[in-house]
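U., I forgot to send this yesterday:
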Amino acid sequence: MASLLIRAYGLSDREADVVRAVLQGLSTEQIARTTYLSPYTVQDYLKSVFVKTGVRSRRELVGKLFAEQHWPQYGGGASELGADGWFAQTSRRLSNLGRPGNQAHIAPGAGELAARG
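Result:
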């Protein structure tokens, strides 16, 4: 996960570690073992990350990060950046979400998240 993303959401180092582990598909228990934290502390970090990123679940977190970091590269115009440094959302790119051929590149829930804007 890029440091820009970590700074954008104001994640602590530990929260970023937990997010990286979630992106790898690790369970709470596996994250606890690899980070030397208790499962309860991992859950607390996840709750904090959910609040900071505006999501309610791991699945939604992964979809959001995919949509913000990787989807613009699949939708074309990856060089189109917004004033804040994030990829700009264009109607052309959002209209490509449901087109045949783009389906293989959409993570579960990513299309819905990007379409919501």
